[in-house]
């Protein structure tokens, strides 16, 4: 595995909680410009892995290389993170929230560009406490995009949304990826991974048990009579579990 063309690479990554390995020797190389999906059942170690990559959580062992080198102080300025549980001030409007967060960065995109990209124009004057779940996810995505990151981390970007709101988020994510951004996302939705990701890694019990393109995984694991040809079926075969339980 070489760091040359990778946006981010991890080697032999480990994390223990109370003496138990939550992440047990993971190696991954994420190509520049790709949309990479990390799938796994509850407790597989996805969030722990991603938080180590995001520089939020220190690893117990292993190496993380960003553009082929150890991360330095510029890393945090160059990445974007969409957290699942960001607290937003209830009485700020969407536009005020974006402007407040923009002020945290040395350099940021014009707030208007983010409003357009994330389809926030018609709710720019709405207070955060009044917006819907889908609108909130689009705002959180907008906040993660403010510093025009090269690498974007999305933690279950469409969890809990209705199908229409989910499609909107997918459209935006696809658009961002087509603009050349590298995306790492965790998801429980098979259709989300299949529709957005060019590469998928399946985690279980702290390890990567399989990775490849959705198409190659389906071709490899969905042979034989009666087996449905989709990622859910791949996942079930590999982990013995459904994606959402
Ligand atoms: P989910 O899909 O439910 O979010 P996940 O794949 O993201 O799960 P992690 O949250 O990374 O999994 O958890 C991996 C393992 O580490 C689990 O067994 C979890 O209980 C444990 N764990 C995670 N965070 C902590 C913590 N702060 N202290 C102790 N154990 C933890």
Task: Give a quick rundown of the structure.
The chain has 9 helices and 10 strands.
Topology diagram in text:
Blueprint: E1 6-17, E2 20-31, E3 35-39, H1 46-53, E4 61-66, E5 69-70, H2 74-78, E6 79-82, H3 94-102, H4 111-117, H5 133-145, E7 151-155, H6 163-178, E8 182-187, H7 190-196, E9 199-204, E10 207-212, H8 214-221, H9 231-239
Parallel strand pairs: 3-8, 3-9, 6-7, 7-8
Antiparallel strand pairs: 1-2, 1-4, 4-5, 9-10
Helix pairs in contact: 5-6, 8-9
Adenosine-5'-triphosphate is lined by residues 17, 22, 40, 42-48.
Please characterize this protein's 3D structure.
With 245 residues, the chain is of the alpha/beta class. It has one domain: P-loop containing nucleotide triphosphate hydrolases (Rossmann fold). It is built from nine helices and ten strands. Strands 6-7-8-3-9-10 form a six-stranded mixed beta sheet, sandwiched between helices. Strands 2-1-4-5 form a four-stranded antiparallel beta sheet, covered by helices on one side. Strand 4 (61-66) and strand 5 form a beta hairpin. Helix 5 (133-145) packs parallel to helix 6. The longest helix is centred in the C-terminal third of the chain and has 16 residues, at 163-178. The protein is globular. The model has no long low-confidence stretch (mean pLDDT 91). Bound molecules: adenosine-5'-triphosphate (ATP). Adenosine-5'-triphosphate binds at residues 17, 22, 40, 42-48.
Radius of gyration over C-alpha positions, nearest whole angstrom: 18 Å
Order of helices and strands: EEEHEEHEHHHEHEHEEHH
* Number of DSSP helical runs: 9
Give the integer mean of the pLDDT values.
91
Strand neighbour order, sheet with most strands: 6-7-8-3-9-10
Number of strands: 10
Q: List cofactors, ions and other ligands.
A: adenosine-5'-triphosphate
**Category by helix and strand content:** alpha/beta
Q: Beta fraction of the residues?
A: 25-35%
| CATH structural architecture | 3-Layer(aba) Sandwich
């Amino acid at each position: 595995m070489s760091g040359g063309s990778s946006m981010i690479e991890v080697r032999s990554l480990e994390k223990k909680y109370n003496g138990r390995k939550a992440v047990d020797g993971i190696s991954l190389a994420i190509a520049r410009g790709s949309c990479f999906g990390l799938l796994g059942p509850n407790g597989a170690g996805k969030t722990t892995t991603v938080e180590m990559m995001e520089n939020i959580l220190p690893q117990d062992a292993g190496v993380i290389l960003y553009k082929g080198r150890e991360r330095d102080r510029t890393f945090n300025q160059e990445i974007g993170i969409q957290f699942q549980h960001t607290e937003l001030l209830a009485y700020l409007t969407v536009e005020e929230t974006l402007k407040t967060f923009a002020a945290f960065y040395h350099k940021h995109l014009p707030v208007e560009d983010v409003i357009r990209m994330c389809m926030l124009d018609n709710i720019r004057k709405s207070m955060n406490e009044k917006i819907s779940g889908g609108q909130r996810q689009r705002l959180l995505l907008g906040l993660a995009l403010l510093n025009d990151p090269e690498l974007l981390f999305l933690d279950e970007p469409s969890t809990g949304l209705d199908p229409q709101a989910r499609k909107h988020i997918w459209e935006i994510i696809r658009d961002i990826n087509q603009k050349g951004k590298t995306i790492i996302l965790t998801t429980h939705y098979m259709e989300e991974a299949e529709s957005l990701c060019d590469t998928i890694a399946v985690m279980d019990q702290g390890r990567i048990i399989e990775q490849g393109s959705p198409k190659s995984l389906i071709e490899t694991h969905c042979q034989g009579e009666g087996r449905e040809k989709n990622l859910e079926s791949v996942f079930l075969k590999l982990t013995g579990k459904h994606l959402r339980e």
